C-alpha cells in the first residue's frame, strides 16, 4: 500500500520540510474586504501582519470541498491511501471537507485525522506520518502511531491583545476590558478540541515562564521531545526564548514556528506559545 500525507495550511510547516517529506498542503483563506488570499500560498505570515496594520483584521474561511476532491483525485493516480491531518474540528470545519471529499473520490481511501490542535504541533503529526509512509508503513499503522503521539501532545499560548479573543467570542467585552486594565495574560490551551483558558497570569514574562515550567514537568521524565516555539510576528523574542530553553532542557529538540494568517487573525500580533510532543 502506498500512502500519501495531506495537511492544511494551519500546520505552518515550512515549505522546505513539506517538500522534503512530500507533504501535500490544502490552504485555508483570509479575506480582506473583497480580496481572498490562500494562506501560505498567496500571502505569507509576514505579509499578513503588514496587511492587518493597513487594512484591519480579515475574516477566515476553510477550504472548499472541491479543493480536497481535486487533490485526492490527483493522489489516486499514484497512491492507495491518504492520511489527511487537520486542525482541531472544534475550531474549524476543515476536516469535514476532507471527510466529505473522501466519499466522492474513487480509487483511494481517505483516513482523516483530527489533530485536536493546530500550528506546528499539527505539523509534527504530518511529518511523522510522512516519514513512516516513506518507509513503507501502511495507513492503519500510521494512524495508530498518530493516536499514540496524541497522548503526549501539549500546547499553551497567550495573546498580547484581549480584543481579538473578545471579537471571536472567547471572552466577554467586560472580561476583555477588565483584563486589559489589569494586564492579565490569559494562558490558553486546547481542551476537548476547543480553545479554553488554562490560567490567568498577570504579565507576559510570567506567562512565558509558566509555559516553560509546564514543558519542564514533562521533560523531567527524561524522554525525548519535539517542541516548537510559536510566535505572531515576534521572531527575535522567539529565538531568545529558544536559546534559553535549549540550555535548560537538553532532551528537547526545539524549532521556531509561527502563527500564520488564519490563526493570527484570531490571536492577534504579539501572541506567543509553545507546543510539544514526545518523540
Automatic annotation (TrEMBL):
Q: Which UniProt keywords apply?
A: Lipid-binding
Cite the InterPro entries for this sequence: DegV, DegV_C, DegV_domain_contain
Q: Is Kinase given among the entry's keywords?
A: no
**Keyword Iron-sulfur listed:** no
Q: Which domain of life is it from?
A: Bacteria
- What's a single GO MF annotation on this record? lipid binding
**What name does UniProt use for this protein?**
DegV family protein
Q: Which organism is it from?
A: Bacillus salipaludis
Amino acid at each position: 500500500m502506498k500512502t500519501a500525507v495531506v495537511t492544511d495550511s494551519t500546520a505552518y510547516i515550512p515549505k522546505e520540510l513539506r517538500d522534503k517529506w512530500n507533504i501535500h498542503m490544502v490552504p485555508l483563506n483570509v479575506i480582506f474586504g473583497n480580496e481572498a488570499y490562500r494562506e501560505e500560498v498567496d500571502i505569507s505570515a509576514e505579509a499578513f501582519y503588514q496587511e492587518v496594520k493597513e487594512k484591519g483584521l480579515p475574516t477566515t474561511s476553510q477550504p472548499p470541498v472541491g479543493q480536497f476532491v481535486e487533490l485526492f483525485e490527483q493522489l489516486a493516480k499514484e497512491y492507495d491511501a491518504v492520511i489527511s491531518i487537520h486542525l482541531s474540528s472544534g475550531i474549524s470545519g476543515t476536516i469535514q471537507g476532507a471527510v466529505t471529499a473522501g466519499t466522492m473520490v474513487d480509487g483511494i481511501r481517505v483516513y482523516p485525522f483530527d489533530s485536536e490542535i493546530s500550528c506546528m504541533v499539527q505539523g509534527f503529526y504530518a511529518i511523522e506520518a510522512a516519514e513512516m509512509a516513506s518507509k513503507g508503513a501502511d495507513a492503519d499503522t500510521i494512524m495508530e502511531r498518530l493516536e499514540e503521539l496524541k497522548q503526549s501532545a501539549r500546547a499553551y499560548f497567550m495573546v498580547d491583545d484581549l480584543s481579538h479573543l473578545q471579537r471571536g467570542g472567547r471572552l466577554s467585552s467586560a472580561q476583555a476590558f477588565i483584563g486589559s486594565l489589569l494586564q492579565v495574560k490569559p494562558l490558553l490551551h486546547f481542551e476537548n478540541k476547543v480553545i479554553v483558558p488554562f490560567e490567568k497570569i498577570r504579565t507576559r514574562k510570567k506567562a512565558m515562564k509558566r509555559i516553560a515550567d509546564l514543558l519542564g514537568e514533562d521533560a523531567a521524565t527524561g524522554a525525548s521531545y519535539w517542541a516548537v516555539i510559536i510566535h505572531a510576528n515576534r521572531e527575535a523574542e522567539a529565538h531568545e526564548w529558544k536559546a534559553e530553553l535549549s540550555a535548560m532542557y537538553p532532551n528537547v529538540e526545539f524549532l521556531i514556528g509561527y502563527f500564520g494568517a488564519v490563526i493570527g487573525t484570531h490571536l492577534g500580533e504579539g501572541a506567543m506559545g509553545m507546543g510539544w510532543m514526545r518523540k
